[in-house]
Structure formats: C-alpha cells, structure tokens
Write a structure and sequence with these properties.
Blueprint lengths: L7 H7 L1 H14 L6 H14 L3 E5 L2 H11 L7 E5 L4 H10 L2 E5 L21 E4 L11 H11 L2 E5 L20 E5 L13 E5 L2 H10 L4 E3 L2 E2 L10 H11 L2 H18 L20 E4 L3 H10 L16 H4 L3 E2 L4 H9 E4 L7 H16 L4
Parallel strand pairs: 2-3, 2-4, 3-11, 4-5, 5-6
Antiparallel strand pairs: 1-7, 6-7, 8-9, 10-12
Helix pairs in contact: 2-8, 3-8, 4-5, 4-7, 9-13
Bound molecules: pyridoxal-5'-phosphate.
The site of pyridoxal-5'-phosphate has 15 residues, from helix 4 and helix 5.
Amino acid sequence: MKVLCSDPLAQYDKYRLEIDAAIRDVLFSGNYILSDQVQSLEQEYSAFLNCNHVIGVANGTDAIELVLRALDIGHGDEVITVSHTAVATVSAIQSAGAKPILVDIKSESFTINTDLINEKITKRTKAVIPVHIYGRSANLNKIKQICNDNKLYLIEDCAQAHGLKTKSGAYVGTVGIAGCFSCYPTKNLGGIGDAGLISTNSAVLADKLRAIRQYGWKDRANSSAFGRNSRIDEIQAAILRVKLKYLEANNILRRDLAKTYKSNLQNLDLILPNTDNDDHVYHLYVVRSNKRDKLKKYLFDKNILAGIHYPIPIHKQSIFIDNISTSNDMSTTELLANEILSLPIYPELSLQKLNYVTDSIREFFTKSVN
Ligand SMILES: Cc1ncc(COP(=O)(O)O)c(C=O)c1O
C-alpha cells in the first residue's frame, strides 16, 4: 500500500464531475480574466469569512507582498515574523523591500512566541505577520494587543488555515488588517494550480489591492499607482468555488483523522499535536521525535511518504543570512527543525491507510529497528 503525504488528485477525483463542469463553463464563456468566477469567489469567500472584502491574486506569496506594498511598507521598514515557516512568508517581505525580523516560536503550538515580539520592535517596525502554521492559530489576542500598543499592522499569514476559527469565533484572516491565503493544491482550500486570496475589512486597502494586482490600473489603461500582474485566473476561481462548498466538511474530516492519529499513537516516544484544541484545521499533522530521520526512512521503506515542514529554519538559509535579524535565542526553532515529521493527512485519506501508517510507526518503536 502506498500512502502519500498529501493527495490533491484524490480530491479532484471526489469532485470531478462538478470541477469538470465548472472548468467547461469557463472555457465556453470566453471570459478568462477577472470575470464572473473571480467576482463570485471573492463574494462567496468574504461571506464565508464574514469580512467585507476578498481580493483574488496569483498565489499566497503575492498575497503577502501585495498587502505590504498596499500599506506602503518597504525599504527601510522592518516586519516581524517567524523563521519556522514556508520560505514564502519571508521572501514576500524581502520582495516588498522590507527587512524580515525573525522571532522564535513556542514548542507547544509551533507559532510565534509572543513574549519575544516586544524586544524586536524598533522605530522601523511596521507590521507583525503571525503564521497560523499547520492549521493552528497563533495567539491573536496577544499579538493584536502588541500591534495596537505600538501602532503596527497585524497581517495574518493564513496560507495553512482556511476555515480556522479563533477563540472568539471569528475566522482567522479577519482579526488583523488583512489575511493572506494560499490556494496551492494541497492546502485546505486548494486549486488545481496556483492561486491566492486576501481578506480585509478595509475598503481603502481593498481598492489599493485591486489596483496593484492589475498594473496599478485605476481605470482601464490608466495606472495611478504601483502595480503589476498578480491576477487569479477564472479557471482557478471556478474550481475554488466548488471546493469552498466543502471546506467546512473537509476540515471536520481532517479533525476526525487527527483524533484517530491521537488514539492510535498513544504511549509511544512521540510528541503529538494537541487535539483537544478545537481551533485546529490540521493542514498538517506534525509529530515530534528525536529519532525523526530513522522513523521517516522506516516509513519510506514501507511506501509511506511523511514530510518535513520545514527542515531548515529560514535564518539558516544562505540567501537570508545577511538580510535578516533574529531573536537572540532561536533554540526552539532550531530544535524542532530536527524533530518534526508531517504524517499523511488529507480529507480523502482512508482509515485503512491511516491505520497502516500508525501500525508502521508502532512497529518502528517496538521492534529493535531503531
Ligand atoms: C505559511 C505559508 N505562507 C505562504 C505561502 C505561500 O503560498 P504560495 O505557495 O501560494 O505562494 C505558503 C505556501 O506554501 C505557506 O505555507
């Protein structure tokens, strides 16, 4: 039996009739750029999130960069985020021209250690970008307070957290000035190709973003601001509209799988994510082991593809070393990079496959293979 870490083909197969019909409708409409599908997706996602505006863009990296540019954050400015994230979070800050300031994380949640934010705030700091990593919310109450106290923008990286609610019941992406979502195929709301979505309650920011994503156009062919091409395309929008209908149900399936992982993996030398916390949409199911590499290889030999998100902290990657600043102590980020392992999780994962994964893990720890 082969078990992939994520399986976007299985999701396509589940909704194939609807997706094929949606694509065909776009093909026959003759309108392929910023037309009915994009408009409807933007309306439907803003209704889902209960926020005023959603703006579709080309991908999740652009979503972050464009928000920074729209807020006039760039050269000479600093933006605080984490080192334990997809490289995209940090490269988007650099692309906007600002300096990334990387803070250590908390080991229980893998999210930004809010106790370390204040000491990195300077006169140049303009924003904080918490990442709701793996589908779990950063401590938004605390971060919002810090941002309010210091007049900083709170921009949420929601690439891995579609449909995640905060403790107050609001969806992530609606607490800060903007939420930045990736719709990369494996995401909780994933396209069949690249796409990104930005949520905001600010009409001014929404207008600016709509201009920036299309050459800075105010009216057609009249650019009044910086801009470039970062349009979401009609076909991705049509596919995402189909998948949005099932987002909540699919997040429930992810939570159910996480519960089964938890019960199957009891009493092993593994640290499991905390499934008692409902505020989790399990984009990834990440466990910790100090035998991580051997375990990954053992699973690989059994045709189980576990992943590592992310093996090299951003502050250790050569392109960033000279252009960032970090907390004095990055030990949690560095420790976890050696211990984390992402087990297969996606709504279409069968119980048979999940049990095969957990039986194999139990075998690894009980046999004398390690
Ligand atoms: C945390 C995080 N931020 C940003 C991104 C960037 O999204 P995209 O790949 O759509 O550009 C990703 C996607 O991998 C991500 O996981």
